[in-house]
Amino acid sequence: MKFPNIRRTATAVTAAAAAVLLLAGCAGGSDAGTADGTEPEGLKIALSNGFVNGWRLTLIDKFETEAEKLKDEGIVSEYSVVNAPGENSATEQASQIRSLMLQNPDVLMVIPASSSALKPVIEEACTAGINVIILDAEMETSCGTVVRNEYGQWGADSLEPALEAIGGAGNIVINRGVIGSQPEEAFHNRQLEILADYPDVNVVAEVNGFCDSATAQKELVGILGSLPEVAAVPGCIGGMGVVQAFESAGREAPVVVFDTDGKSLSFWKESGISNGSFAALTDPGQVVAALYVALAKERGEEVPADVVLPLVKISQDELDYWVAELNADEYASIAWDDASIEAALKALADGEKVQAPAVS
User: Fold this and answer.
1) How many Å apart are CA 307 and CA 293, to the nearest integer?
2) Is residue 282 a contact partner of residue 259, using CB atoms and an 8 Å limit?
3) Residue 22: CA atoms inside 13 Å, Cβ hemisphere, count?
4) Burial class of 323 by CB neighbour count within 10 A (0 to 12, 13 to 18, 19+)
5) C-alpha span between 134 and 93 (Å, rounded)
6) What phi-psi label fits residue 267: left (phi over 0), alpha (psi between -120 and 50 degrees) or beta?
């Protein structure tokens, strides 16, 4: 399916759509993009973010750096980032998105606080002819394109290297994420599917680490005294806290999954842990990928509704590179660019798995 810019190709709209356009203040449109395969010029791009944490701050920094580069090239004329107030409130983000629509952007990028609650306002943006990109979430819309990592794959990436490191046998503790959330359900279900093929792996406990190192440490400290020898603690990151919990109990560090931020990776290196531990996390660089997906749509290229990309995975062999590359609070990200996204879109069209560009 091709995605020409509706504002520049539609000759009429229904009365209902016209009302939405008037409400959104977007009836005028702009002539920045193209639909004939040529490079767009002077695009206005807005990013709406549901809440702020360290991972999101890295994402925002990647967005601003790449948008500034595209601005220097004349492809982008303006860009903005707006963080919704409150604690990941879908209501507040919906209001924020409607305010952004009044500014008539060519491209609207949204990291939704809720895929279901924000679907109506996303549909409004689609009807207004805005090129909509949804990040880091699943959502079915009439014209929006989702660019994301797959949580089931994250579950696999956070377990399989640990199973390999322990030779497919031994006691493990599963470190759960935010239990009850859709991402954690997909994450954990995939891990259970994988473990079904490992009869010699014994899950001796689960902890609710909430994808947070300090929480994982606290949860493990409370149960370690009752556990047998533990070979690995795979699951939703938190490796630094897991190691500290085992150290405080006078026990040898198991195979763990570290966060991909500079502080955690430096801890890994300085601790001298070389037992097969690794790092795996969703990719804040997906926002750069999303920018180039948006440009492909502006050119009228074939773009699937759901662009699923690989996650960040860091092995022992890559640790020195990332420790030197990252600030303490910065998260590792994949270096997407126009060429690598072109290759990714081709792979998806051919039914193949997307490959991340190699670490430079």
Assistant:
1) 9
2) no
3) 7
4) middle
5) 13
6) alpha
Provide the 3-class DSSP secondary structure of residue 102. helix
- Which amino acid is located at 273 in the chain? I
Say how far apart CA 359 and CA 276 lie, in whole Å.
Answer: 20
Helix (H) and strand (E) counts in the chain: 14, 12
357, burial (CB in 10 Å: exposed 0-12, middle 13-18, buried 19+): middle
Sheet of strand 232-233, all strands in order from the earlier edge strand to the far edge? 201-208, 170-176, 232-233, 255-258, 278-281, 312-314
Measured in whole angstroms, how far is the alpha carbon of residue 181 from the centre of its chain? 15
Taking each helix axis as running N to C, give the angle between helix 338-349 and helix 286-298, from 0 to 180 degrees, rounded to the nearest 10: 70
Instruction: Summarize pLDDT for 127-178 with one digit per residue, the tens.
Output: 999 999 999 999 988 889 999 999 999 999 999 999 999 999 999 999 999 8
**Tokens, residue 236:** 């939703």
Per residue in 64-79, pLDDT tens? 999 999 999 999 999 9
Instruction: Give the DSSP per-residue string, 25-91.
Output: T-SS--S---SSSSPP-SEEEEEEES---HHHHHHHHHHHHHHHHHHHTTSEEEEEEEEPSTTT-HH
